[in-house]
Every structure is written in C-alpha cells, then in structure tokens.
Amino acid sequence: MKFKSFLLLIVGAAFIVLLAACGTDKEKNEGSSESASADSGNDTSSELEGNVVIDGSGTVYPLMSRIAEEYMTTEQQGVSVEVSRAGTSAGFEKFLMKDGTDFNDASRKIKEEEQAKADELGIETKELKVALDGLTFVIHPDNDWATEMTPEEIKSIFLADGGVEKWSDINPDWPDEKINAVGPNENHGTYEFFYENILEEKDLVSDVNLQQEYSTLVTLVSEDVNSIGFFGFGYYVNNKDKLQAVSVDFGNGPVEPSLDTIAEDGEYADFTRPVFTYLNVNHAKEKPEVLDYALYVMNNVNTFAGETGFAPIPNGEAESLIEELEALKQ
C-alpha cells in the first residue's frame, strides 16, 4: 500500500509540473502573438489612405504622372493620386479656390495676380522646382533645309513683324513655300514662356495655329513638311519617330536640345527653363497623404526626370526643398 501511495504521489506531482509547463508555454505564445500584433501595427502605422489631386501643366504632366504611378504602386497603395493636364494657367484657376487642387504643375512661375488671389483666399503656396526643360522647335522629318537655325530666324517665323511668310524669306535657297507655324495655346505655361521670354511679348503672326492638346501639335507637324511647332523637350523625345528637332545656333555653332545640353548654365541655356509644381500648404498640413506625396516627389524626381524628357535639378536644390517640406510635419 505504501508503495502504491508513493507511486500515486509521484504521478500527481508530474501531472502538476506538466500543467505548469503548458501554462507557461501558453503565456509565452500569447505574449509572442501580442508582440507580433504590435509589430504589425507599427508596420502599418505609416500606411496612408486618401486622395491627392493634381492639375496644371501639360509639359510637366508626363513627369508627375510617372511619379504618381510609382508612388501608388510601391509607396502608398491606399492613396489615389489623380493627375490632370488643363494647362498651367487653367490649372492655377482650379488650384486657387476653396477646396481646390492639392498641387498645380506649372511650366512657369506663379504670376503676381495669382499669388495675390492665393493671399486673398488664405492659401499658403509653396513652389517646388522639379526639373529643367528645353523649349524645343520641331519640324517634319523630311524637312532637310531648316534643321539648323538661329534664335532670330526662329523668332522671325512667329513674330507678326518678323517679315517671314515663306521658307525662302529666311534663306533664298530654301523652298518658296508658306511656313505653317503651330504651338500650344494661352492655357499653357509653355506658350507664356515663349511669348514673354523669347518673343518679349511682341505680337504673334495672325495665322499661327494654337492648340490645347500637345498630341494635336505632334500630328500637325508630322503631317506637314512646311510646318514648325514648339513645346517641351519631353514631347519631342516621345515622338522622335514622327518629328525632328531644330538645332539652335546661339552664336557658337548649332546645339541640339538633349539631356546633356539642357541646363540653366549649359549650351542650350537660352531656351532652358525650370518647371515646377506648386503645393497647397494648407492641404499639406491637414492631409498627411498630400505632404507625404510632396516629399516623395522631391526625394525621387531626379530619378524619373531623364526617362520623361527632363534634365534633373541640382541635388542640393532638391535637398533644401525636402528639408523645408519636412519642417511642415506637425
């Protein structure tokens, strides 16, 4: 009997130890589960949801839409970034209103009257320089006479008092055919840059064909050997199979627009311009996704500039803008 009692005591003790061990393992597992859940929560805390609305420049559109695509795919899948291209001026109208767009892409700087409207509405704007663009003059691929011109010759085609109607008016050896000039309309910052900076606000020829859509300009030039048009370098790059670019002689020989020559202090400097996106700072402070997207743009814009037909901005300029955006975080 004593032996049986001792045996029962041993079995009971072992059972108690086993129960304790199971309880400890269960607690450990529960602790691990809670820890994993907490870690998962930390991982998803940076995930954002919402909408970012962008409009404005047709020139900047390929760059911004490419960045938006990458952002939605790899960075914040819960954020929808809508990019449209009404044109710089038309875009500013949508930007400078109550509950307007979050960003306005612009191929020129904001005008004084636009900034005054922003101030009146209490909209704080921030200019973000995103790339460098080269104003590019394009002709038909079969045009083998006007492949190189001076700025003065180009301007004479578009100026009302330029004295040029036919190619032979520029050079008697060129065809005695009427030149058909085309370009973007007044909604576009590209038109304004050309009119204000290149033509110095002098009247254009009365029959210049100004269009809203850049694709229309590509078609007009590609189907008419006597046409000449202008727009940003990116639209030329994407249509090299239909167009050729005019090399411009600024005084030291003809220079073809390219990512190597487009720079504010480069060979194509006279026809180089910065392009921008303008941020509604009020929205950036209210909606985390807007500020997050602005930071993503400035951290990655130089990566995507070249593939969309733009020259990059200096890294130092991008870094300064990133620091200014970081300061908006609350």
Automatic annotation (TrEMBL):
Species of origin: Virgibacillus halodenitrificans
Membrane topology: Lipid-anchor
One GO BP: phosphate ion transport
Alphabetical keyword list: Cell membrane, Lipoprotein, Membrane, Palmitate, Phosphate transport, Signal, Transport
Region described as Disordered: 27-51
Domain of life from the UniProt record: Bacteria
InterPro entries linked: PBP_domain, Phos-bd, Phosphate_ABC_transporter
Molecular function GO terms recorded: phosphate ion binding
Entry annotated with the keyword Cell membrane: yes
Metal-binding listed as a keyword: no
Pfam families: PBP_like_2
Family (UniProt): Belongs to the PstS family.
Subcellular location, record wording: Cell membrane
Domain PBP: from-to ranges: 44-298
Biased segments, Low complexity type: 32-43
General function of this protein: Involved in the system for phosphate transport across the cytoplasmic membrane.
Gene3D superfamilies attached to this UniProt entry: Periplasmic binding protein-like II
Protein name: Phosphate-binding protein
